[in-house]
Amino acid sequence: MCALKPGVSFHASFESAAMLTVLHRLILPTEGLEQCDAMYARPALPERVADTSSQAFRLQAGQAFTFDTFYNAFSIKKWKQAGGVSCLSLSVHIRGQGEVTLFHRSQAGVVTSLWSKEIEGEIRSTEEIPAWPALSEGLLYFSVTAKAECTVEAAYFATSSPMVQAPQLGVVITHFNRQQYVRNSIQRVQKALLQDPAYQNVIHFIVIDNSANLDPAEVPGAKVIKNHNYGGSGGFARGLLYLHEQGAFTHCLFMDDDISCEVEAIRRCYAMLAYSVDKHIGLAGTLLDDQKPWSVQEKGAEFSGGVFRPLHEGADVRPVENLLQLEQDVGKPVYGGWWFFAFRLDAVSAYPFPFFVRGDDALFGLMNRFNIITVNGIACFSEHFLSKESAFTRYLGMRASLAIYLMVGQGRTLPALKMMGLAFLWCALSCRYQSAQAILLAFQDVSQGADFWRLNLDFMPLAKRIQKEAAQRKEPTYFQAEPFRYEGRPETRVRKYIRLVSLNGHLLPQWCLRKTPAYVGEYTRGLLGLTFRHQHIVYRKYESSDIFEAELNRPQFFSLLDAFVKTSLSFVLRGPAIRRSYRKNLPILTSKAFWQKVYHAQPKSD
């Protein structure tokens, strides 16, 4: 392991300061990323200084900016939980005339000024925060007020406490046919992070190239390992094997290949790992919606009864009151998504299960029993989960849910049957027969037992069985012209009863059906009520301009229903044997030896 060189810290310390490790520096939005001003500063973004490589910004006389925001407020509770930060300082480098003030906002919303400093000319100041040992929750943040023009060159929270461990961090990125994304991302990181001497020898990027078509020369600073495509599970397993085989790495960070995050998130992740006393730390990045950058998709997640549940879903990160709530423990987070998930290598006892994709991150967290934490300001962006849902993803998601429930959940037959049945009927009754068939296929495949996964590591042949909904992209005027509904309607008991006994219209005679289409959002509450008695349905994908159309088809519906009933009866009869098969083989299919055998025949990269 290569520790930091003596006299080198994260970012050069100020001349008047002792050697410090930067934990959390003030940032402004990075060009090319989804942006929302209120996530960085209030009341608006300050004027950037022309040097685009700098985070410096300018204030005119009379202006004031406060940084009690998602990216710039310092979370006391989470850094206290890390356990290794016994003292804390705020360092600022400001030129001009004005005032900088440090505040504490408690969980109850009480704001206290901890200190204030006048700015005259140029200051390079590091002020220790005496209140730090007594603080246990809330946010630390500062404001800058300009009496005359001021330029803030840098500001950060730092500590003189020694690291618990100086991590050698391997950032594993699994890539498949997204060359432009990964090229741009690595080049951005290379410029902002890997050229910083403090990180050159302690953070290393490893790209697992599942499509075997990435030119290593196009991703300078990263090691490229060409790999057979066994999906995200196989890619991340290959990355883990590499890190373990090297023997020098202490920590791992799994990331998506577009690395759609502030580079500062990686720095903060490194610092959190360096100061955490918890061997089983699992640092999960918050996933934000790239269409609504202030909206949380997931900030930690739980798995119960075969159901994946994102925590803090839909929370708005802009109000400071919400920031305090976001740092509270909600539910029982047991895993973090692999778009951004960091952990210690010596805490890994189980490798990824060969799901290909979907469910691998959940089972990895459950098997390794990580203590999941999330921190405001460590986040990335992605298209919303629901906008990516299709028959294909429903197959992947439902087979993972059922398999995990059988392996590490209660695994009871009737609850498992209920889980699959409700998902199947929701799609079939709303005429989305491709998705209903995909769920049926997932049920049939999982019912084959653990050998199914061993024999189908290469998922692509299986994918050909799944029919896709034919999506079309429409102009915005289309949705204004048609009566799309995104909320359900009140229903009488009689109407609900008729819907139930008629299988949402599939048993009604043709003359009872409406000829005009139903225009609905795919995830509208009360969807079955809105589609009832419609022969033709036009669905709008979530947060997109894509539509797909569905037609009520009685023969197809009853054919699928008959197959699902037969699969269910077989599952009920064989349920205990299926569960035993999974639980017996789980340790084998998540072992390091299993993946070593899988990749044994592959040539090693340079």
Question: Could you walk me through the main structural features you see in this protein, from its secondary elements to its overall organization?
Answer:
The chain is an alpha+beta fold. The chain has 3 domains: 19-157, Jelly Rolls (Sandwich), CATH 2.60.120; 167-380, Spore Coat Polysaccharide Biosynthesis Protein SpsA, Chain A (Alpha-Beta Complex); 389-554, no CATH class. It is 31% helix and 23% strand. The strands form 5 sheets. Strands 1, 2, 3, 4, 5, 6, 7, 8 and 9 form a 9-stranded antiparallel β-sheet that branches. A hairpin with an 8-residue loop joins strand 2 (47-48) and strand 3 (57-59). It is globular.
Summarize the model shown.
Keywords: Transferase. This protein is an alpha+beta fold.
